[in-house]
Amino acid sequence: MPNVKFYKNEDLPLELHKVRIVQKLNLVPIERRLDALKEAGYNTFGLRTADVFLDMITDSGVNAMSDNQLAAMMRADDAYAGSQSFERMQKAVEDVLGKKYLLPVHQGRAAENVLARTFIKPGDVVPMNYHFTTTLAHITEVGGTIAELLCDDALELSSTNPFKGNIDIDKLVRFIEETGVERIPFIRMEASTNLIGGQPFSISNMLDVRRVADKYGLMVVLDASLLGENAFLVKQREKEWGENSMGDILKMMTGLADIVYFSARKLSSSRGGGICTNRHELYQKMEVMIPLFEGFLTYGGMSVREIEAIAVGLYETLDETMISQSPTFIKYLVETAEAKGIPMVTPPGVLGGHVNAMEFCSHLRQNQYPAGALAAALYLCSGVRGMERGTVSSVRDEQGNEILSDVELLRLAVPRRVFTLSQINYVIDRLEWLWDNRKLIGGLQWVYEPRVLRFFMGKLEPTSDWPHRLMEKFRKDFGDSL
Fold first, then answer.
1. What percent of the chain has pLDDT over 90?
2. Integer CA distances (angstroms), 340 to 109, 333, 354, 434, 441, in order
3. Which end of the chain, N or C, is surrounded by fewer C-beta atoms within 10 Å?
């Protein structure tokens, strides 16, 4: 879409949709928020939505669906096998992602389970731009490990590098030479790197990765869950692709991968997911896993209504005005907060605005979980539920020692077409107050720590009475205000 402006007066993001159905929100008093934190084990995943004002924990499965998606769900073909709904999804995958063979799964981590069980054997190592929590869990569960081969400045949180999700090609070549092709099942690219601030990769980098893969006879696997937003930032930041359509950019990226998998909870504003390829022999290797773990080959653990919504959502990914909504609101959130002195990950990425918790809570040690503490503190003073992306989301080694995360981030997800500008401004206002009172934030410690994916179900407690002190300061500043 030529000459489309996504900002009014170059500073305010413009909602390119109208609201026709609304959902009531609650802003409970701070005393209730403190009780809710205690009940949740100071883990925002444990909070009840009845106690949450703005839910910014994720964009997964909570993007606003379109009128056309909702309408399509009404024509779903409720067949166990051979559903016409699946045929429509299959056609959408081929039209938008350029892949002929499709295996449906109930969400992205189910695709990771299929890929890991099919291609990874004990002792294998998967090179990638950066891991995602569930990706790492599935790889390690089958005996594999990972190698993160990011460019050198990818972990510089305040940066001007537009593509911090790029793989370092020299590191990739050295890794392959030193590890041996026989121990490398595939190279994985994630669009965009979730755990380091939603940072995209460039098409030029993926072309280089493809050339290396071809030289050594390796597969490239693309996690396309945030492919639309990655494509949007390619169009904005990679000069060679500025005049191309979203469709051209999407097919260029997927065309460089042997296998593409996605969570439709992110990619198409729906539920479910899929694995797709143009190589029939790869399809056949994975095919048996679908009836075993997911369901039949034409529903894959999904409702056919979800399948219909995915098909429409994939086509809507081609619409730049739709895809732009999340990145432009994230840009506003990040740049406005940064202007107030709040340490943010820059340049703004996708999925959400990311607060640099290591700098925000510089008085805390990393083993006191500064990102988790910041998530709890922000909820307490605002009712906003963000998500820890730091050491709480990490793992322990075989000896039980904490593996400290590369970064400590508070993620404030901005799902597509969900929040208004005034709500984003409310988040910024509460972040600014918390920044001014950051020394009141204390650490956390585990009281219940699951072995796998502990950040989902684990429970923590404060190392002091800092939540009460923070509450008292809030009440002093705001009186009886919520």
1. 85
2. 37, 11, 15, 12, 19
3. N
Place of tokens 């595939």: 186
Cα separation, 349 vs 242, whole angstroms: 17
What is the torsion angle, in degrees rounded to the nearest 10, for the CA atoms of residue 471, residue 477, residue 481 and residue 482? -30
Do residues 307 and 78 touch, judged by C-beta distance below 8 A? no
Q: Which 3 state secondary structure label does DSSP give 305?
A: helix
pLDDT 10s digits, 266-297: 887 778 999 999 999 999 999 999 999 999 99
* Alpha helical stretches, state H, 102-186: 108-119, 133-141, 169-179
- C-alpha 97/C-alpha 264 separation (Å) is 13
Closest-CA residue to 129 (of 155, 152, 149, 156): 149
DSSP assignment, residue 64?
Answer: P
Residue 330 has pLDDT above 90, yes or no: yes
CA–CA gap between residue 372 and residue 444 (Å, rounded): 7
Other Cβ atoms within 10 Å of 423 Cβ, number: 17
The pLDDT of 444-466, averaged and rounded, is: 95
**Confidence at residue 50, expressed as pLDDT on a 0 to 100 scale:** 96
pLDDT digit string (tens) for 173-200? 999 999 999 999 999 999 988 889 999 9
Q: What share of the chain is helix, strand, coil (3-state, %, to 5)?
A: 45, 15, 40
Neighbours of 23 (CB within 10 A): 5
Ordered by where they begin, the domains of the chain are 7-59+322-478 (3.90.1150.10), 67-318 (3.40.640.10)
pLDDT above 70 for 1: no
What pLDDT is stored for residue 481 in this prediction?
A: 64
Q: Is the peptide bond before 347 cis (omega within 30 degrees of 0)?
A: yes
Distance (Å, whole) CA 286 – CA 61: 25
> Annotated catalytic sites, by residue?
80, 132-133, 223, 266, 389, 455
User: With contact defined as beta carbons under 8 Å apart, do 295 and 301 qualify?
Assistant: yes
User: Could you read off the pLDDT of 354-406 as tens digits, one per residue?
Assistant: 999 999 999 999 999 999 999 999 999 999 999 999 999 999 998 999 999 99
Residue 78 has pLDDT above 80, yes or no: yes
> Cα–Cα distance between 61 and 251 in angstroms, integer?
24
